[in-house]
Amino acid sequence: MLPNPTLDQLQVFLTVAETGSFSAASRTLNRAQSVVSYTIANLEAQLEMPLFERSGARQPKLTEAGKAMLEDARRILGDLQVMRARVKSLKEGLEAEVSVAISVMVPSRAMVDVLHEFRERYPTVSLNLNVGELGMVMDLVLSGKATIGIGGAVLKPDDSMVTERIGHSFMLPVAAPDHPLAAIDRPLTLGDVREEVQLVVTDASGRTRGRDFNVLSYKTWRVSDIATKHQLIKAGLGWGGLPAPIMHDDLRSGALVHLDLDAYEQGEYAIYSMRQLANPPGPAAAWMIEAFRTRLSHCPNQADFHAEMAELREPAPPLAAE
C-alpha cells in the first residue's frame, strides 16, 4: 500500500527538523512531547523508513531519507499556505485571476513597474496578459477576454464600456541612419517621402478598417505587429512611426534617427483604462488601473522627449587645453 502521510504529520516533521529537537517542536506546536514523538513514529511507519537518527546523539539528526523528505514536506506545506491564502482572498472578494490587455503605446517601463508591484501585492492572483495593437485592446475588453484594458484607439464610444483617460503617449517618424531620408539635411516634405516605402501596422481588430493614420507614402508595407515594424525600420527596409517608449533607446544609441517631417501628425495620443460597464473591476484590477494612472502621469511629454533628443545631438564641448 502506498504511503499516505497527513498534512499534520508533515507539519510536525517539518517543525522537529527546523527546531532541532522533539522538545522544542512540542513547545512550538503546543503539544506534549509524547504526541510529537508518536506522530513522527507513525509517519516513519507509513513511509517504511527512518527520518531521524536517534541513537548516540542528544538531538535527533535527519537521515538521508529525512533530508530528501524535508524538501517535499516544505513544498507541500508551502502549496497549502498558498491555497489557504487564495481561499481567504476569494472570501474577501479578491479575484482569482485578472486578465489585462495593454497597448504597445504604454511605456514598457511603466508596465513592468506596475506588474512587479502587482505580484508583490497580490501573490495569489493569477495574471493573463495580452499586449495588443490599435483596436485589439478594446476588442479584448468588449469580448470579455480581458477584465481591463490599458491603451488608446477608443475610436467609437460604446455604451457598454467605461473609459477613463489615465495618461498619454505619442509616435514619431523614424528611419535607420543609413536610410535615404536620414541623409536629407533639411526638413522633409511630402514629396521626399511619397516614393519611399512606409511600414504600417494593420489593425487585426478591424476597428480601424478603411482608416489610415499618418500613411503618407504611395508605397506601403503592411505588417501585423509593432515589433516587426520596429525591426524592419531598424534594418533600413522603410520608414514609419513608432511609439516613443519603443524607440527611445534606439534614438539614444543612434540605431534610429528622428525624421523632421511636418506632414506627419505628431500629437500626443491619450491612453485610457477600459472595462465593461457590467463587469466592475475587483480589488486587484482596480488597484492596477490606479497604478497605471500614477506611473503614466510621470511619463515625459512630447516636448520633454524632443528636448532630451536635442541634448543628445549636441556636440560635446572641446577639452580645455592645459
TrEMBL record:
Q: Which domain of life is it from?
A: Bacteria
Keywords recorded for this protein, A-Z: DNA-binding, Transcription, Transcription regulation
Transferase as UniProt keyword: no
Q: Which residues form the HTH lysR-type domain?
A: 5-63
Instruction: List the InterPro entries hit by this protein, alphabetically.
Output: LysR_HTH_N (IPR000847), LysR_subst-bd (IPR005119), WH-like_DNA-bd_sf (IPR036388), WH_DNA-bd_sf (IPR036390)
The similarity annotation says:
Belongs to the LysR transcriptional regulatory family.
Q: What is this protein called?
A: LysR family transcriptional regulator
Q: What is the lineage of its organism?
A: Bacteria, Pseudomonadati, Pseudomonadota, Alphaproteobacteria, Hyphomicrobiales
